[in-house]
């Protein structure tokens, strides 16, 4: 019977703007808490916080690895080492869900989709030495044949899940540029179906919410911790306006003093009173996927968002002194070098506090991946490059080299020395720190990726 379980979130190989803001995903935390409640001894290693000690793997009876696409190579390397040492392994997370056959080349088991209930069933059978081949959500080999068992329905009563036990994380959760950033999830699912996003394939089209009391209870667990900062993991924090009002008002009523950030859509600005309430309740920064200022790109990515909504959201949030982290994507078929340059000018003109200019990436599980796969436009399947900072497909209106340079130059242009001086002269210290950090990160990224960039440039030479 397995008594000790190691949960691992592997690190990605590349650098990006959040490299120093290590925030654990909640999947491993919830599974480890569930296992602990069932009597198992559990540890969690988040490699972005603390490196995994390979020498210590032998003390564990089961290793559970959670992977997104860019961490898949490292996840597979860990699983391969475990297999060599006869340590049972199970891999889950979005990438393993959509590439389960591939994951089974390295791991004994794959847990697909929303895993809390299925993983609990797996532990019950596995720990007693029983046959796990019929466990829901599980992919495995049975009598030499790969079996993919049906998925359980998504959990409707989210309140029956335990509060994640952050004490299980080895090394704690301190970040370099801020104190302890605590992830909190108040909902799952998304009714939107953007072509480049895998959220709906993983968690469904229907919004499901934790109750307000459940979320308040979670926040109160951290309210007295000095330097704590909340990041709401919801894909769309204000999806249900009535429920958001209720949550924010109860946060004020319960004297929740922590500052917080969340991800929202641009349409949050339709309700100005809600924005004011968000500010009063401690909102510091909102992360908004603007994606593009090209209306054709917005339409064809199925974003269901207009330029008016984008500009309105910026104006309303700035009026309420809520910082904006704008996320834009380069490389849609409707994009051109001119639209990308216009996007950078737009972000500078509207004085966004911080930005990411990301590269369109065909992640497994997305409509985009299916389309580009059909069209034979996927150039690389080195999953370590799938971090939205590397060109991995053949763009329509750029060479791969041109699109990559467009992204590098966009960050350099936005996080310029002139912008830094303006922040310093107006005593915007946090924006100054972010500007310095992002400017240096862009330079380091270029240096680390010289071989990759050279390979892209050689493709142009070969074509000409």
What would you say about this model in short?
With 464 residues, the chain is α/β, with parallel strands linked by helices.
Structure description:
This protein is α/β, with parallel strands linked by helices and 464 residues long. The chain folds into two domains: 4-148, Rossmann fold (3-Layer(aba) Sandwich); 178-463, TIM Barrel. It contains 17 helices and 15 strands. The chain has helices at 26-37, 72-84, 94-98, 100-104, 116-127, 199-203, 212-220, 241-253, 272-280, 295-300, 307-319, 337-349, 367-374, 400-414, 417-425, 429-448, 450-463, and strands at 4-9, 41-46, 62-66, 89-92, 109-111, 138-142, 145-148, 181-184, 187-188, 208-209, 229-232, 259-264, 283-291, 323-330, 354-359. The strands form three sheets. It has a seven-stranded mixed beta sheet, sandwiched between helices. The longest helix is centred in the last third of the chain and has 20 residues, at 429-448.
Strand and helix map with partners:
Blueprint: E1 4-9, H1 26-37, E2 41-46, E3 62-66, H2 72-84, E4 89-92, H3 94-98, H4 100-104, E5 109-111, H5 116-127, E6 138-142, E7 145-148, E8 181-184, E9 187-188, H6 199-203, E10 208-209, H7 212-220, E11 229-232, H8 241-253, E12 259-264, H9 272-280, E13 283-291, H10 295-300, H11 307-319, E14 323-330, H12 337-349, E15 354-359, H13 367-374, H14 400-414, H15 417-425, H16 429-448, H17 450-463
Parallel strand pairs: 1-2, 1-3, 3-4, 4-5, 8-11, 11-12, 12-13, 13-14, 14-15
Antiparallel strand pairs: 5-6, 6-7, 9-10
Helix pairs in contact: 1-5, 7-8, 8-9, 12-14, 15-16
């Amino acid at each position: 019977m397995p008594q000790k379980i190691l949960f691992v979130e592997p690190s990605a190989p590349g650098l990006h703007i959040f490299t120093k803001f290590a925030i654990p995903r909640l999947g491993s935390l919830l599974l480890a808490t569930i296992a602990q409640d069932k009597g198992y001894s559990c540890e969690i290693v988040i490699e972005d916080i603390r490196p995994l000690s390979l020498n210590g793997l032998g003390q564990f009876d089961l290793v559970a690895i959670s992977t997104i696409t860019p961490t898949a190579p490292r996840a597979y390397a860990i699983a391969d080492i475990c297999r060599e040492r006869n340590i049972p392994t199970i891999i889950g997370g979005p990438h393993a869900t959509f590439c389960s056959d591939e994951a089974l080349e390295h791991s004994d088991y794959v847990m697909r989709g929303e895993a809390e209930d299925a993983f609990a069933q797996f532990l019950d059978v596995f720990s007693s030495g029983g046959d796990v081949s019929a466990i829901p959500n599980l992919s495995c080999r049975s009598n030499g044949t790969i079996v993919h068992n049906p998925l359980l329905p998504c959990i409707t009563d989210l309140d029956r899940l335990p509060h994640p036990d952050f004490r299980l994380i080895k090394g704690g959760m301190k970040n370099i540029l801020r104190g302890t950033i605590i992830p909190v999830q108040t909902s799952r699912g998304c009714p939107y179906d953007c072509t480049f996003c895998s959220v709906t394939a993983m968690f469904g089209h229907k919004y499901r919410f934790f109750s307000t009391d459940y979320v308040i209870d979670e926040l109160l667990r951290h309210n007295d911790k000095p330097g704590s900062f909340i990041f709401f993991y919801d894909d769309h924090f204000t999806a249900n306006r009535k429920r958001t009002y209720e949550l924010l008002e109860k946060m004020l009523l319960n004297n929740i003093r922590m500052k917080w950030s969340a991800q929202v859509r641009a349409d949050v600005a339709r309700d100005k009173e809600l924005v004011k309430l968000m500010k009063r309740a401690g909102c510091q920064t909102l992360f908004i996927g603007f994606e593009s200022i090209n209306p054709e790109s917005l339409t064809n990515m199925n974003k269901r968002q207009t330029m008016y909504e984008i500009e309105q959201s910026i104006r309303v949030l700035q009026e309420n002194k809520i910082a904006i982290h704008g996320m834009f994507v380069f490389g849609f078929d409707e994009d051109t070098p001119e639209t990308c340059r216009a996007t950078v000018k737009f972000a500078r003109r509207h004085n966004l506090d911080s930005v990411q200019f990301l590269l369109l990436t065909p992640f497994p599980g997305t409509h985009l991946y299916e389309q580009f796969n059909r069209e034979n436009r996927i150039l690389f399947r080195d999953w370590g490059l799938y971090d939205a900072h590397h060109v991995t497909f053949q763009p329509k209106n750029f060479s791969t080299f041109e699109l990559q340079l467009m992204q590098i130059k966009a960050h350099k242009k936005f996080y310029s020395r002139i912008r830094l001086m303006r922040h310093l002269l107006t005593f915007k210290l946090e924006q100054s720190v972010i500007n310095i950090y992002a400017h240096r990160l862009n330079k380091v990224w270029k240096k680390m990726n010289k071989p990759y960039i050279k390979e892209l440039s050689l493709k142009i030479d070969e074509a000409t």
